């Protein structure tokens, strides 16, 4: 019996370790597939069979292979058939068929805190009807690890799905370059300090001299700590961008050939991403008679992830409104960040949050309304817990109240408490050093950045 109890204790300890590790490391499987969902009367996509039947088969394959996050493009008039046979718990609502929708949707096992559709600012009908529909890209901040029930930690990655302008005429090339650059500008503004995955139908090839934007997307960030990588170039091309054209058959078992469907990614101080496998998986998406289901090779990438060793974050509280902000990049440049002063502003609601680090760096977000309050922390005093309360204002959810608690038992509060609150406690040995979220004149959505003491 003593041996049995020892074994049970050892097993329990191992399980606890596994649970802890599961919150800070894991695996992620993603798929990108252009589902050839244009109305049959407009485009057959050179795919035999009935499009509704094919769409139902695609949805059933999505359910069967159980990818974590699937981006689809050209998901227009047969969208309902795909969703009818798929079983992913989180799925974007369609924006409509031709000519109303973008054809971009996501089917996911992961929930997200915000989803946006963005139309291309530039399009071209030079060689195809790219301006017929509001093509563009989508953005979502998905929780790849939801964290503990007490909101202590969470891990997020920003997912982008895109379908760029097609064709090789001069106007097409100009539009496509503008498309890719538009995504890059959006990432710079909204995903600062965050890990990013961009995948979809770029309609671009490295082997075409005019397609410079995808080269810039990689080259402009190579050599930096959080640079963008192309999973295909990294894993199948040995890191060498091809200069000669090598077109893929469909289905293709040759992973060295180049398609326009691509996967880019980057890590951040909060989470490290690493692509482990890249495959064209058309052989998994075939009709009963062996014919393909789409004129594109679906692209599958398996990724490992791990939480940052020196910076982590909490879950979010509040609503998806306002402009995204993040202190992560600034904090990553500070060796041992520690707040010396906490400052909040509030009245009926929470107007702003601010802190000053011991090196003089000041991090502040929100507006100038409400009354100001602050405390100065001692040399060995740390901010270790925060309480947020949210409510409705003008039909939008935002943060109404914050209370900070330190290791010395002191508190600082601002705003007005509601009945809808959550407590955020820094992990053992860590403390709160900054913020992430969305804000305007007030704090709409808020999360906290942790660092080791």
TrEMBL record:
**A biological process (GO) annotation for this entry?**
phosphatidylinositol dephosphorylation
Quote the protein name from its UniProt record: Endonuclease/exonuclease/phosphatase
In its keyword annotation, does this UniProt entry include Hydrolase?
A: yes
Q: Which GO terms describe its cellular component?
A: cytoplasm
Q: Tell me the leader sequence span.
A: 1-22
Q: Kindly give the InterPro entries that the UniProt entry links to this protein.
A: Endo/exonu/phosph_ase_sf, IPPc, Jacalin-like_lectin_dom, Jacalin-like_lectin_dom_sf, Sph/SMPD2-like
Q: This protein's superkingdom?
A: Eukaryota
State one molecular function term (GO): endonuclease activity
């Amino acid at each position: 019996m003593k041996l049995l109890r020892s074994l049970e204790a050892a097993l329990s300890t191992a399980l606890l370790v596994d649970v802890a590790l599961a919150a800070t490391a894991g695996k992620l499987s993603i798929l990108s597939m252009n589902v050839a969902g244009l109305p049959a009367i407009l485009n057959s996509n050179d795919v035999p069979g009935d499009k509704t039947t094919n769409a139902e088969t695609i949805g059933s394959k999505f359910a069967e292979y159980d990818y974590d996050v699937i981006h689809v493009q050209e998901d227009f008039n047969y969208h309902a058939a795909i969703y009818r046979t798929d079983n992913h718990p989180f799925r974007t609502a369609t924006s409509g068929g031709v000519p109303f929708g973008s054809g971009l949707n996501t089917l996911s096992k992961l929930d997200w805190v915000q989803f946006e559709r963005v139309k291309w600012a530039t399009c071209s009908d030079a060689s195809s009807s790219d301006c017929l529909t509001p093509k563009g890209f989508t953005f979502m901040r998905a929780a790849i690890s939801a964290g503990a029930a007490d909101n202590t930690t969470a891990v997020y990655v920003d997912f982008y799905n895109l379908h760029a302008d097609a064709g090789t005429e001069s106007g097409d090339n100009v539009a496509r370059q503008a498309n890719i650059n538009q995504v890059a500008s959006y990432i710079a503004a909204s995903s600062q300090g965050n890990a990013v995955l961009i995948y979809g139908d770029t309609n671009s090839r490295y082997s075409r001299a005019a397609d410079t934007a995808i080269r810039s997307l990689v080259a402009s960030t190579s050599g930096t700590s959080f640079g963008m990588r192309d999973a295909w170039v990294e894993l199948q091309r040995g890191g060498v961008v091809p200069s000669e054209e090598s077109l893929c058959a469909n289905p293709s078992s040759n992973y060295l050939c180049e398609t326009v469907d691509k996967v880019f990614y980057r890590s951040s101080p909060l989470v490290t991403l690493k692509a482990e496998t890249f495959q064209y998986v058309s052989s998994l998406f075939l009709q009963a008679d062996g014919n393909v289901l789409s004129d594109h090779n679906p692209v599958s990438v398996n990724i490992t992830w791990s939480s940052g060793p020196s910076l982590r974050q909490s879950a979010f509280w509040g609503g998806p409104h306002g402009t995204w902000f993040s202190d992560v990049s600034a904090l990553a440049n500070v060796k041992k960040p520690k707040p010396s002063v906490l400052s909040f502003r509030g009245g009926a609601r929470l107007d702003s949050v601010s802190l000053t680090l011991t090196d003089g760096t000041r991090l502040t977000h929100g507006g100038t309304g409400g009354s100001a309050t602050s405390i100065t922390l001692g040399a060995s005093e740390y901010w270790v817990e925060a309480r947020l309360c949210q409510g409705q204002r003008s039909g939008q959810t935002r943060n109404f109240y914050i209370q900070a608690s330190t290791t010395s038992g002191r508190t600082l509060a601002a705003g007005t408490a509601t009945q809808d609150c959550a407590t955020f406690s820094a992990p053992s040995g860590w403390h709160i050093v900054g913020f992430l979220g969305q804000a305007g004149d007030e704090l709409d959505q808020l999360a906290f950045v942790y660092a080791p003491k």
